[in-house]
Amino acid sequence: MVSFDRERTEDRAVELLTDLSLTDYEARTFVGLLRLGRGSAREVSDVVEVPRSRVYDAVESLHEMGLVDIRYGTPKEFIPVSHETTVRKFVVRYEDLTQELSDVLNQLNPTGRETEQIGVWTVTGSKNITRRVVEFINDAKGEIILMSDEALLTDEITDALVRAKEKERDVYVTAVDSETEDVDSVPSDSTVVETFWTWSRSHISRILLVNDEVTLVSVEQQVGDGETAEVAIWGRGTKNNLVVVLRTILAVQFGEDREAFETGTASLETTDDPTEASPDTDDRPDADGHDE
């Protein structure tokens, strides 16, 4: 008689195995073998709800996955691999699959001409903004300029900057407040420059410019009595007005030997971008094309 706790654990094991792409029969057969230690098709069928003929099919699949060994005789006996081996095989399998997925996705460039993103998008909350900053840094193909409140230089961001330096990207880091002196958290070979204006009373939290074509600006916004929340706007595209303005401002500090900046005449549009807006990042286009 199987105890209630054991039965509940086995049911959960079946659920997890099916989540990891095993069929219901394969998962039940494997769990049945774990209960028995080893067994024939008849013995497995007796302890789990799998017809004997389907046990053979399930075992063949499990054997191909390296999860079950077969001892040939009359009758055949099936032996599950150890728990550690089982977990390791799934880890390796999904590492390979995720790497292949990454390679395939990198090849899926837009089939048509990419359109410039002229709109300005908003992100609310420091956690969501940090996630967006890390994403932009990770995607950098050229120069990265980050001006940030020291408290917002999280491990996630500094790790991303380190990876960027390892990829030989040019990284410039500066504080938003001229009184900030602790720069130990930034990559050692990054260029640390003095802030070129005083932000201590402006509540600006961070400015990011990547590749001269992606920028993000965040501020602390009052949301209640004594409470504030970080809110950011970001834009993408060499002719995006937000990018043009900040790129021009930052060029004054980081060198004027760049290509001439063209200021477009298009107004800030705010059409929805389904590839960017997602619930977990809380990205929203500004209403009516105005800054919030």
From TrEMBL:
<dbReference type="InterPro" id="IPR021586">
    <property type="entry name" value="Tscrpt_reg_TrmB_C"/>
</dbReference>
<feature type="compositionally biased region" description="Basic and acidic residues">
    <location>
        <begin position="281"/>
        <end position="292"/>
    </location>
</feature>
<feature type="domain" description="Transcription regulator TrmB C-terminal">
    <location>
        <begin position="120"/>
        <end position="233"/>
    </location>
</feature>
<feature type="domain" description="Transcription regulator TrmB N-terminal">
    <location>
        <begin position="17"/>
        <end position="82"/>
    </location>
</feature>
<dbReference type="InterPro" id="IPR002831">
    <property type="entry name" value="Tscrpt_reg_TrmB_N"/>
</dbReference>
<dbReference type="InterPro" id="IPR051797">
    <property type="entry name" value="TrmB-like"/>
</dbReference>
<dbReference type="Pfam" id="PF01978">
    <property type="entry name" value="TrmB"/>
</dbReference>
<dbReference type="InterPro" id="IPR036388">
    <property type="entry name" value="WH-like_DNA-bd_sf"/>
</dbReference>
<dbReference type="InterPro" id="IPR036390">
    <property type="entry name" value="WH_DNA-bd_sf"/>
</dbReference>
<feature type="compositionally biased region" description="Acidic residues">
    <location>
        <begin position="270"/>
        <end position="280"/>
    </location>
</feature>
<dbReference type="Pfam" id="PF11495">
    <property type="entry name" value="Regulator_TrmB"/>
</dbReference>
<feature type="region of interest" description="Disordered">
    <location>
        <begin position="261"/>
        <end position="292"/>
    </location>
</feature>
<protein>
    <submittedName>
        <fullName>TrmB family transcriptional regulator</fullName>
    </submittedName>
</protein>
<comment type="similarity">
    <text>Belongs to the transcriptional regulator TrmB family.</text>
</comment>
